[in-house]
Amino acid sequence: xxxxxxxxxxxxxxxxxxxxxxxxxxxxxxxxxxxxxxxxxxxxxxxxxxxxxxxxxxxxxxxxxxxxxxxxxxxxxxxxxxxxxxxxxxxxxxxxxxxxxxxxxxxxxxxxxxxxxxxxxxxxxxxxxxxxxxxxxxxxxxxxxxxxxxxxxxxxxxxxxxxxxxxxxxxxxxxxxxxxxxxxxxxxxxxxxxxxxxxxxxxxxxxxxxxxxxxxxxxxxxxxxxxxxxxxxxxxxxxxxxxxxxxxxxxxxxxxxxxxxxxxxxxxxxxxxxxxxxxxxxxxxxxxxxxxxxxxxxxxxxxxxxxxxxxxxxxxxxxxxxxxxxxxxxxxxxxxxxxxxxxxxxxxxxxxxxxxxxxxxxxxxxxxxxxxxxxxxxxxxxxxxxxxxxxxxxxxxxxxx
Length: 401
Description:
Blueprint: H1 2-9, H2 20-40, H3 44-50, H4 55-83, H5 85-109, H6 113-138, H7 144-172, H8 175-193, H9 217-244, H10 250-277, H11 281-298, H12 305-334, H13 340-368, H14 371-385
Helix pairs in contact: 1-7, 2-7, 2-8, 3-9, 4-5, 4-6, 4-13, 5-6, 5-8, 6-12, 6-13, 7-8, 7-10, 7-12, 9-12, 9-13, 9-14, 10-12, 11-12, 11-14, 13-14
């Protein structure tokens, strides 16, 4: 962990033109937030299932969550334009406490799932709009691949520890304790953001008027394809293996296989960042997409612990190879459009809308056919959709800047 922090803080280009106080608050806050969410993230659908919600209802929960994110992405963009990204990220942490509090007390107050989905959607929309705007502002296009790999590496270290620890705590003490620990870390994550002033000049509103929306259509499709696959890996796949593969110690087993796969992505992050900066991003996306397509189709055939672990490891390798280049392309494009905030809102909202359609499809399958067959059919569909990442046309991945 100390080596990772040293790499980030001593990189010659990372966080260029950013004061050390701003750098420090960002990586400390983001790491604490990532750790808090990684402790519970993959377990939320399993937790709902064990509380007695059926699989279709859980799918509808995620559908509502992404539908709610659409308008709140826009609100988060307006607030970011008016008050700055750090303020909006701070609001997100406070709203996250509301979401976690509802999860913690859902058995006692019988919160409707749409209300839980709403609280989650508001907090996540506020956080990611602020985060993407802030990172796109301070990255350096010539080294953004390395910058992304550094921040990705730091987040993944936290993500590797979180599921394993969360799974063990849930297995021994129950999910209430895990949620309680997550609340503590979210509270700690708020503190670094209070140490410096808002670094970004604010102007009061955002405008979509001069955004190249038609030009971005292909990139939205590419992001949507990989976003659906990522959503499946983070939520649908853990639920599937918990219900149909693992019969005991479910939280511990899911936490273990998730942590193992995250460690694999940590090993890949630095190498992938170097490939992106050497202008091999497009080839990296293409080869990684081919692997992902095969992996998603194989999910329907896996039925053992060894198979799950192997599939998760290869999946993380491949997803990293797709996500990091596309993120570089998005951040570089955000740096070249007239309204950075509006561009981030456009991309985020388009992707969450696609994910909402995906979960509605899953809920429809679960309502009409055998449940295990519905999951397996979804895996095959995602495999067929994944090659759409080939249509991306980010100039930053093709030419020298």
